[in-house]
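ok so for the tutorial part 2 we go from a plain amino acid sequence to predicted structure tokens. step 1 is just haveing the sequence, like this:
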Amino acid sequence: MRKFLKYWLTAVFAVVYALAALSQPNNDSLNMRSVLHYPQGVWGTGAASINNGLWGYNDTATGKEYALAGNYRGLLITDITTPGQPVNKLWVPGVYSTWREVRVKGHYAYMVHDFVATGSPVSDEGLLIVDLDSLNGTPRYKKMRIPVPKPTGGFDTVKRAHTLFADEKGFLYLFGSNIGPGGAVILNIGTDPWNPTVVGHYNSNYIHDGYVRNDTLYAASLWNGIVVVNCVLKSNPTVVKSFQTPNQFAHNCWLSDDGRVLYTTDEQANAFITAYDLSDWNNVTELWRYQVQPGSGIIPHNAHVKGKHLVTSYYTFGVIAQDIECPEWPVLVGYYDTSPFSGGNFHGAWSVYPYGNSGRILVNDMESGLWVLEEEWPEVTRFGGWAVIDWNQQGGPYMPWSQAGGISGPLDYVWKSNGDTLRVEADGSFRYHRFGPINDTLLGINPWGQSVELPVNKSGGTCPQDTLAVPMFWGLPEGGMPAVQVRMLTGAWALYENGTPVAARRYALVDALGRTVRSVSVAGSTGETIAWPEVPGWYTLRVETTDGRLLHVRALRP
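step 2 — the prediction. this is what the tokens look like for a chain of 558 residues:
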């Protein structure tokens, strides 16, 4: 959180909540429900009424799940394996601070705090380490100020830090500390997790938060944007790339599982979650940016990737989940509002933890406390690509939409089952998504105003490259005559009625001025074709069928 909001250090919000286990939410929600609401007032620990950072712990030996919830006055570790019966396992009191963050590596938890509030009974505590294997016995934890060598000689000590991250290689990164400009202090926790040692220090700029994978640090650096740092050589980290975020206040970032996309949040009113394609370091590309309730002032805080979902905490909105199976096309699949507040202020959901083995989602709300949520996020089917003109109903080749002529501008099609709309833009592009598979029919008109029905059968949320083939019938019925389809062949038309070739005995072509340009008797065989006239334009076909009926249709000679 932003450090200039120091009024939080002395202001306490007295909000009373009831413990609601396994209850349906009263809060606004979509595809998520509360199975535990655990407000600070019932913790029984002496906690303050303001919470902050959060992480979780999956005990592989016992199968139990724990929430590690930061509070203004310390850290609570709670067994939430049975959500209706939370069991406090450890309360670690500490300095009074609005800012705490915690991470877990193996069976050790690491926590830092930032600025200490006035009136705190103790001063800066540095790094808290908890042995989570000790939760069912005698608690084992310690607080330590880790010495960091100074470039000019001597040592400084880590008294506080804003955030931290534990990578997959056994290194712990402390961000926004009191060392230098508050870059990244790099600790080795792989060799001896109980006794971390400093192995490197990046001090070129302040880092608010960060994500590390494969020795690459993606640093959310507030006004400096995202700074990418090569940390292969821990003693000499070097900048690889930097780029600015939309609101110029990069607060948090998280990498997709395949390493291609970086998701960022800007901690500003009406700010964005933004996605960047990192596949080409010479051309980092913004894929999209997303706001919750634009214009409401709501502030995004912390985003995390869980497989094909991006789960983000919002201060006064709670938590949202987006399906990112197609990175270029995010779809909102769930949300849960944990906060009684609204608008662009710094209240509400601070952190979210989506990595519990049970699939449950943890949220730490500053005022309302700890939440355990169950998700029911649906599968998403994306249907998108380009509309084309099916001018001969032969399965291709197709005519590009831009060459169709007729109606200019976008065309809207309606899904027969639910009345939703799919819009084909003037360039032929279209996008539509639905929860669950699509087995439906689109109703509308083609660019010439002819009615069409387009069956669509599809499932799956990967990035689509769909073709929507819109038929063009090279004929329009006249008066009360039966509807006849005129299909375009190479240099000729073919007449169909209800999908069956018309058996013609005689036909005449009449131009727009009413002149008969051709009159021909034919053999009367089914599927007889009519050669185009020499001059392009609209013509009336007057056809006498073998059973004596007269058909009048209009046909376009392109």
